[in-house]
Give the backbone structure.
Amino acid sequence: MNSVGRRLLFGGAFRAISQVLIVVVGFVLVPVMVQHLGPEMFGAWAVIGGFLGYFTLLDLGLSSAVIRFVSRSHGANDPQGADEYICSAFWLFAVLSCVALVITLVIVVSCSWIWDDPVEIHRYRVAFGLAGITFSLTMVSRCFVGTLMAHVRHDLLALVESIVRILVAIGMYVALIYGGKLISVVAVHATGNLVKSVVFYALAQRVHGRLLLRWAHISRDKTREMFKYSVFSFSAQVSNLLRFQSGSLMIAFVHTMKAVEPFAIAERIFYLPSQFVIALCGAATPVLSSKEGSGDSEGLRRAFFIIHRYACGLAVFFTAMGMVCCGPFLKCWIGNHSSVTLITWLIQVGFIGTFFESLQVATLTLLFGVSKNRQYATINMIQGVLLVGVGIPMLYWFDLKGLLVLYVVLNCIFKMIAVSWIAARTLEVTLLHYYRKTCEYLLLPGIFVPLLYIGGRVMLQQATYGSLVLFGILGSTAFSLFFLLVLPRDLRSSLLNAVGRIAVKNRA
């Protein structure tokens, strides 16, 4: 395994550890927020987060373009081209940050049209204004994040994200304990984002070298090329927001802020399996772009199926682990919450939907890595529009359960049929060959699922945080050894060699 592969492995491990820390921090913080903010204000916090998520549309897909073209320039040994892509993206983000400021001003003014109570108008104006201004100021940092990802330095990104997230959580906890409300929480979160942006700039300078960000270094040809690529990345962003950020908004629209709470709690859990798979396997886009840049089609195909093998195995493990631990964890986390039965059902069904998402992580990295994201964006957009368009009537007729069932059905159809077909065409293999590989990669890890279930039944009879942690450690260790044993010999040797090299380097 070469140095890029080792960085990819190291970065994936850091991303996974970072994801665990973020999840733990979130689980500790949510009960405190619910207790001190109350169900209505916690629902408002979720709605503000979902609404501001739509601000990321102003990215226009340029973050993906930076990763794609800077990494391709490295693969083609063209450092000047990489500098021109970075500079062009920086100034484009600067212009978009001004647009974000204007939109924030419009939102702040429109608060008086939505709420009648002067106290609520003031609260939401300050909250939306503070969050929107911070987003605008930090938007240029997306260029620096893309540069670090193009250099496959996910370890640095994960480390910074983890440290800042922990500090922000501590700040929120202190603010809530001492009587702070919604505005205090937003202020702490905004401060963390500002600090993170400054650190990302410093790291990009260190990893890439001196960043040439003067207006004179903008390349019109590079700008046009990035926009041509980013238009479809933007479509994928829109569809992802429709699929991932619209749930709370739809529930608040159809029902009330208070009705958002069960879904917001369940949503934090049922997306975890796919988030962990993305953390471990979703960082390979620069590697695939470099393969394409060097014209190595066979190497590209081989790299994809290696990533796909890992993604399938991890999807099986994380989904099964979530199913087994869900009930005992909720007993420890929220105890006798009035909606615990509904939340448990939402999580269990949500896990099925995110399983299909997890299986296609490798395909996502492939299509964005080789500029074939147009088809993926189109399919994702159709899925997102259907989720919102059909989801609102489903909420009216069947409440939250109808929305989750729709999510699972759409994921099964679009991810397992449409996206698989796109992957097969991109790799120039038959759809039958792609399905055969997928089934092969799912079969052996699937043997471990009954063992995991039996172990969970034995160890989690008494639901405590200690038993959950112990089961998680033992289950992860056992699966890692099992998965390592069922890997082909060449992959197993390469993986162990890379781990050994990383360990020696760290000791040194």
